[in-house]
Specification:
464 residues; 14 helices; alpha/beta
Length: 464
């Protein structure tokens, strides 16, 4: 087995994957799959997310579905989402590579790679560490980027959880993941019936995999816009389902969980003997779901966050509108890799967005602002030497400098924690991150052709 690096923090980290099937599927837009033109491309049937959280490692069930008892917790959750063969095939399709090559060279390592978390451990009581009877864990929702999964950002999610936050990493089923399985898929049944399981949905390349209803001429980026609508709905449903779980009154009646269940985890069949489920439904709630819910996104996930903050709440299906509170989302800073900062036209547009955002915060009564006076809501930061993959676990995988990848992931985690706490400037100082002005240096031979790069060392921060 191979393991990703452990993350620093005050608490051990647990992780559990939850899922909820919709009673009625929801179709978004007029796009169709080119392979089966009669089938809509964007149909939401199930919402899936992995929760990362401070774990109670002293009270762990011995195995999924078994009677609970005290057991020594063990670390290790699969980094490559199962079924591995389907997900690897999706990565090959995304990279337009041979599926055989991906399976041959990436499969043996990726399928054995583990995330250093305690899978299906109970949630730690937040009143235990600080002896504060009113303590609650803050909530964070994460949206992955193109060809990402609910485990692609496990290093960041675990870092936030290790410092006392509950993070819901949503598995988007809009064709931006390498592969997702339909609700009828069963991980346990697949082990017994390998040839009778339904096929998954693979990454969708708009130019190759999408067609439109007869007579419909889409506007530019129409499919991406529909995907954002789809993602907003997923994020709200995930929040709603999770909030109903943790805010439900304590009871031993498993019906309170409604359609929510775990993937390869304990099921709420005998709640009296299930420390895992009891840890999530205590009174008062152990997770703060009613205010300052933070949103984190990378790449297309960043666009998802901006879309959520720029649009009204979507109409949710009946099964996810019960007693869930209305979320009060808090904006997080926009962090950028170097190549996007040096993409001049794109960077100028983003600066305009952040400038308008800062203005809205300044004129909105009660809006959250950074106590330091800058680097707060709408902060725009660049990490020197960061690449696009540096914000995900890929920066810590072979093929990248371990020292550089670790340094950048530490910086991303420190900045995210600082903004969640409302003090980016304090975070820069506490994490010993060097703040720089934006300056370029020539690393090529000719000024006219470059290449150019930002002045600074790995992990230095430019606050624009």
């Amino acid at each position: 087995m191979f393991y990703l690096p452990d993350v620093p923090g005050r608490y051990p980290v647990g992780a559990t994957t939850f899922a909820s099937s919709l009673h009625a599927a929801r179709t978004i837009g007029l796009s169709r799959l080119s392979s089966t033109p009669h089938k809509p491309a964007l149909t939401l049937e199930e919402t899936v997310f992995t929760a990362y959280y401070p774990a109670d490692t002293g009270d762990v069930e011995s195995s999924p579905g078994s009677a609970a008892k005290k057991a020594e917790p063990t670390k290790g959750m699969n980094w490559l989402v199962r079924p591995a063969r389907e997900v690897l095939r999706g990565y090959a399709h995304f990279g337009q590579m041979s599926s055989w090559v991906v399976h041959r060279f990436l499969g043996p390592y990726a399928s054995r790679l583990k995330i250093p978390v305690y899978q299906n451990a109970p949630l730690l009581d937040p009143t235990t560490p600080d002896k504060d009877p009113g303590a609650q864990w803050p909530l964070v929702l994460l949206s992955h980027g193109l060809c990402g999964t609910r485990t692609t950002y496990s290093q960041l999610c675990a870092r936030l959880a290790a410092e006392g936050r509950v993070v819901l990493a949503v598995e988007h089923r809009d064709g931006t993941g390498p592969a997702v399985m339909p609700p009828s898929y069963s991980h346990r049944r697949a082990k017994r019936q390998k040839n009778n399981q339904p096929k998954g949905k693979y990454y969708l390349i708009p130019e190759k995999d999408i067609v439109w209803e007869n007579g419909y001429e889409p506007e530019p980026f129409a499919f991406r816009k529909d995907q954002l609508v789809f993602r907003r709905l997923e994020m709200y449903i995930a929040y709603s389902m999770f909030s109903e779980l943790v805010c439900a009154p304590p009871t031993v009646d498993s019906s309170i969980f409604g359609p929510l269940y775990t993937v390869d985890g304990p099921q709420p069949e005998n709640l009296e003997d299930a420390p895992f489920w009891k840890s999530w439904i205590s009174s008062p709630p152990r997770v703060q779901c009613t205010r300052d819910v933070s949103l984190v996104g990378h790449s297309f996930g960043g666009a998802t966050v901006l879309s959520i903050l720029s649009n009204p709440s979507p109409e949710l299906p009946p099964e996810s509108t019960g007693s869930a509170p209305t979320p009060h989302f808090a904006a997080l800073p926009v962090r950028r890799a170097v190549e996007f900062t040096m993409w001049t036209d794109h960077f100028a547009r983003l600066q305009d967005v952040v400038r308008l955002w800062r203005h809205d915060v300044a004129v909105t009564p009660g809006a959250a602002a950074d106590a330091d006076g800058e680097g707060g809501a709408g902060a725009l930061l660049t990490l020197v030497r960061a690449k696009h993959v540096s914000f995900s676990d890929f920066g810590a995988l072979p093929g990248h400098s371990p020292k550089t990848g670790r340094r950048l992931l530490d910086a991303v985690g420190a900045l995210t924690l600082a903004f969640c706490g409302g003090h980016v400037e304090d975070g820069l100082r506490d994490a010993q991150l060097q703040r720089r002005k934006m300056q370029l240096e020539l690393v090529g031979r000719h000024r006219s052709t470059g290449p150019w790069r930002l002045v600074g060392e790995v992990g230095d921060v430019i606050v624009h």
